Amino acid sequence: MLRAFLRTEAGSTTVLLGATLLALLWANSPWGDTYEAFWHIPTGISFGDALFSLDLRHWVNDGLMAVFFFLIGLEVSYEVRLGQLRDRRLLAVPALAALGGILVPAGIYLLLNFGGPGEVGWGVPIATDTAFVLGVLAVVGARCPDPLRAFLMTLAIVDDVLAILVIALFYTESLSVPALLSAFALLAAILTLRKLKIWRAPAYIVLGFGLWVATLESGIHPTLVGIALGILVFVYAPTDQKLLLAGEAVQSFTSSPSARAAREATLRVQRAVSVNERLRLRLQPWSSYVIVPVFALANAGVVLDGESLRAALTSPVSIGVTLGLVVGKFVGISLGTWVPLRFGWGTLPGNLVWGQLFGGAAVSGIGFTVSLFIVDLAFDGNPGIQSQAKIGILAGSLLSAVLGWLIFKLAWDRGGVCAPPDAEPEEELPELLTAPVGPADHVRGPEKARVTIVEYGDFECPYCGRLHPVLEELRKKNPDVRVVFRHFPLRTLHPRAAPAAVVAESAADAGRFWEMHDILYDNQRFLTDADLEHYAAQLDVEPWTDVPRHTDRIAADEVSGRDSGVRGTPTLFLNGVRYQGALDLGSISKAVDEARRSATVEQTPQPPELA
C-alpha cells in the first residue's frame, strides 16, 4: 500500500500539503518565534581559511531546489527530443497558453502595485505549481482525460522555463564578473566531457557542484544551473541493437544464472535506456517527497493572526497576487489557448472541449512552489510584504483549486454527457430498449436469468467506473440476475474510450471479454495505446487485430443505444425498461426486486376466466 501511495500524483501532493500545513502550524504555534530562528541558522563548509556559509533556508532554496529545477531541465530535454514538444503544432497552443498565463497575471498585479513598494513582486503570480496541479487532477480522476493532462503538462513545462528566465533576468541584483567567468569555464568543461562522451558520474558531480557555487557567487540565481544541466543530459530512444544486446544478456542470465551474468544483464538493460530517463526515475521521488516538501516547510510558515490578515485584506500585494492567480491565470490561459486555435496556428491533443480546458486553466492558478521562491527573491529583507505575498499565494492557490474543481464538476459533467441517469433530461427519451439481448451481446450471468440489466457504458467514464463494482456486488448477491454490456464511447469527452472498446472486442475474440472489461475499469486513468497493449499481453490477446470489424461492432452498439434514447453513460435498462434511479447498490437492488416481481407476474399462468 505504501509503494502504491508513493507512486501516485495524489501521494506526493498530500506530502507537500502536509508540509505546508506543518509550516503554518509551527509559525502560528506558541513556539512560532523558533520557526524563523531555526531556518536562519548558519551552516557552511570550510577549506582551511576559506569558508562557504549559508543559512538553512538558503541551503534549501538555493541548494536543494537546484535538484528540483534540474529535474525540470531533464523533463524539457526529454519532451523536446522524444515527447510532445517535438510537434510544433501540438506545442504552439500550450506554449502560447503558458505565455498568456504569465502576461495577464503580471499585468493584473502591476495594475494594483505599479509605483508602490510591492511593484517588484510582479513575478509572484506568474508560476503554476505542477505538483499541486497534478494532485488536483488526480482527485478529479477520469473526468480529466489523458489529452488534457498532456496539454497541462506541456503548459506547465513551458511555464516553468519562462518563470526561470524571469528569475534569471529580473531577480539578479548584481553580477560578479570573476565568478561569472568561472561559471562559464566550468560549463565549458562539462560540455567538453559530454562531447567526448566521457560518462563518469564523479566528474560531473564535482564540476556541477563547482558550477553551482560559481553561479551563486556571481549573483545569478543557481536555479538556472539546475535547468541548464538537466537540458544537457543525453536522451534517446532505445536502439534495436541495444535492445537486442539487453535481450541476449537477460536470456543468458536466465539459462545460466550467476553473479557475473546478472551484472552483465543489469548493465545491458540500463544502457538501453537513456541517462535522462534513469535520472528522472531516481530523482523524482526525492524531489516530490523530500526536496519540495522541505522547501514548503521552510517557506510557507506565515503568521495568520488578526493583524496580518487585516493587513492582507487591504494590501495591494496580497490582492494582486490572489487576483493574478485566480483571474489572471484563468483569463490568460483561456485567451492564450483560443488565439492559436482561432488562427489555426496549432492543434490540441485528443478531442478536448472548452469545459475541460476551462477547468485546466482554473487549476493552473495554483501557484505555490515557484511563487514562494520568487517571494523570497523579490522581497528579501522585507518580512511584512513577504507575509502579505505569501497570504496572497495561499488564498489564490486555494481559490484556484476550488474553482477548477467546480468547473470540472459542473461545466462539462452535466446535460447527459457522462452523467448519471438521474440527471435532469433535456428531451423526452424512450423508456424501452429497442434492441433485445441476442447472441452477439456480452453477457455475464445465467442464460435464463429472471432479471437482465443492459448497461451502455464507456471505459473512460468515471460514473461507469463507480458503477462497475456495484453491478458485480449485485450479481453476486442475486444469482438470477445477468448483466449485459454494450459500448457507448463518448468520443468527444473521452478520447481513449473507443480504443479501449476495440481492445475489449479483441479480447472477446479470445473468449476473454469480461476479464479485459474488469482490467479496463480497474485502470481507467491509464488507457494509452501502450497501456492497452500491456493489458492485452497480460491476457495473451492481440490488441489491434481486425479493427474494422470491431469498430463496426461498437458502432452497432452505439446505434442501438441512440435508438433507445441513450445520451450519456452509464445508462441502464432492467428487463428492457430504462432505469432512472440512483447508481448505488441499494437503489438498483430495489429496482431489481421490482423487475423480478414483474417478471414473476408475467410468467404466472392466469386462470381461464382472466385470460
UniProtKB/TrEMBL annotation:
<dbReference type="GO" id="GO:0006885">
    <property type="term" value="P:regulation of pH"/>
</dbReference>
<feature type="transmembrane region" description="Helical">
    <location>
        <begin position="353"/>
        <end position="379"/>
    </location>
</feature>
<keyword id="KW-0739">Sodium transport</keyword>
<feature type="transmembrane region" description="Helical">
    <location>
        <begin position="124"/>
        <end position="143"/>
    </location>
</feature>
<comment type="similarity">
    <text>In the N-terminal section; belongs to the NhaA Na(+)/H(+) (TC 2.A.33) antiporter family.</text>
</comment>
<comment type="similarity">
    <text>Belongs to the NhaA Na(+)/H(+) (TC 2.A.33) antiporter family.</text>
</comment>
<comment type="function">
    <text>Na(+)/H(+) antiporter that extrudes sodium in exchange for external protons.</text>
</comment>
<feature type="transmembrane region" description="Helical">
    <location>
        <begin position="316"/>
        <end position="341"/>
    </location>
</feature>
<keyword id="KW-1003">Cell membrane</keyword>
<dbReference type="InterPro" id="IPR036249">
    <property type="entry name" value="Thioredoxin-like_sf"/>
</dbReference>
<keyword id="KW-0472">Membrane</keyword>
<feature type="domain" description="Thioredoxin">
    <location>
        <begin position="418"/>
        <end position="597"/>
    </location>
</feature>
<keyword id="KW-0813">Transport</keyword>
<dbReference type="Pfam" id="PF13462">
    <property type="entry name" value="Thioredoxin_4"/>
</dbReference>
<dbReference type="InterPro" id="IPR004670">
    <property type="entry name" value="NhaA"/>
</dbReference>
<dbReference type="GO" id="GO:0005886">
    <property type="term" value="C:plasma membrane"/>
</dbReference>
<feature type="transmembrane region" description="Helical">
    <location>
        <begin position="177"/>
        <end position="193"/>
    </location>
</feature>
<feature type="transmembrane region" description="Helical">
    <location>
        <begin position="58"/>
        <end position="78"/>
    </location>
</feature>
<dbReference type="InterPro" id="IPR023171">
    <property type="entry name" value="Na/H_antiporter_dom_sf"/>
</dbReference>
<feature type="transmembrane region" description="Helical">
    <location>
        <begin position="286"/>
        <end position="304"/>
    </location>
</feature>
<dbReference type="GO" id="GO:0015385">
    <property type="term" value="F:sodium:proton antiporter activity"/>
</dbReference>
<keyword id="KW-0406">Ion transport</keyword>
<protein>
    <recommendedName>
        <fullName>Na(+)/H(+) antiporter NhaA</fullName>
    </recommendedName>
</protein>
<keyword id="KW-0050">Antiport</keyword>
<keyword id="KW-0915">Sodium</keyword>
<feature type="transmembrane region" description="Helical">
    <location>
        <begin position="90"/>
        <end position="112"/>
    </location>
</feature>
<dbReference type="InterPro" id="IPR013766">
    <property type="entry name" value="Thioredoxin_domain"/>
</dbReference>
<dbReference type="Pfam" id="PF06965">
    <property type="entry name" value="Na_H_antiport_1"/>
</dbReference>
<feature type="transmembrane region" description="Helical">
    <location>
        <begin position="150"/>
        <end position="171"/>
    </location>
</feature>
<keyword id="KW-0812">Transmembrane</keyword>
<feature type="transmembrane region" description="Helical">
    <location>
        <begin position="205"/>
        <end position="237"/>
    </location>
</feature>
<keyword id="KW-1133">Transmembrane helix</keyword>
<dbReference type="InterPro" id="IPR012336">
    <property type="entry name" value="Thioredoxin-like_fold"/>
</dbReference>
<feature type="transmembrane region" description="Helical">
    <location>
        <begin position="391"/>
        <end position="412"/>
    </location>
</feature>
